[in-house]
Amino acid sequence: MRRKIVAGNWKMNKSFPDAEELIAEIADKLESMDTGHQDVILCPPYVYLEMATDIAEESVFSVGSQNMNENDTGAYTGEISGPMLTSMEVEYCIIGHSERRKYFGEDYALLAKKVDAALRNGIRPIFCCGEVLPEREAGRHFEIVKKQLDESLFHLTAEQFQQAVIAYEPVWAIGTGVNATPAQAQEMHAYIREQVASKYGESLASETSILYGGSCNASNARELFSQADVDGGLIGGASLKADEFLRIVTSF
Ligand code: 13P
Fold this sequence. Notes:
Layout: E1 4-9, H1 16-31, E2 38-43, H2 49-56, E3 62-65, H3 82-87, E4 92-95, H4 98-103, H5 108-120, E5 124-129, H6 133-137, H7 141-152, H8 158-161, E6 165-168, H9 182-200, H10 202-207, E7 210-212, H11 221-225, E8 232-235, H12 242-249
Parallel strand pairs: 1-2, 1-8, 2-3, 3-4, 4-5, 5-6, 6-7
1,3-dihydroxyacetonephosphate (13P) binds near residues 234, 235, 237 and 238.
């Protein structure tokens, strides 16, 4: 059975004390919740990862980073590597987020290297894909998502691919308050699963968790997650408050 997952991408938010308070509150509340059927992943900024993994040791959530460098070590001032993340017990890394593609020029080839770096270090990539509005309006959304998968993820062997989680995040839905409709999400998730099936076979496709991201919140999560191919969410803004985030966690 593929896993249901709710992951919080905090992006560049929160001071250290606020981050610590939020993570502690989430951990505290998770203790009295039945989360046996879903995985919870928190992706705070790099500088809070060690604090997060310390708290995670006594809790049921896992910790992910929002990015990583494609090299394992060396003269790359300001960068964070896979071995550094692994040494802090970080289990996941978001790779290919549209904000990294847009603001940091991360292209297909670089993202493929980052996916490799994650796997080389035992970190599970949460690989993001999704089209911008003009691409959807032009009816090119399937083609765009296919290209993103083909160029940066589908070079993996089946054994490596098993470790990956996919997140479909239509860029026009991120931070806009306009989520994809459940039907739009389902249509794309089914398409992504089909692509995985044609590359890796039906069995692996049916085990792959495909998350939805883009203005997903406590009010719309249940309907989105009820779609057959939507296995949970990658949550931005709504992951910054414990109660709202945990309402999403229990929206299956
Ligand atoms: P929002 O939930 O704020 O729209 O962000 C989604 C996102 O980008 C998660 O990675």
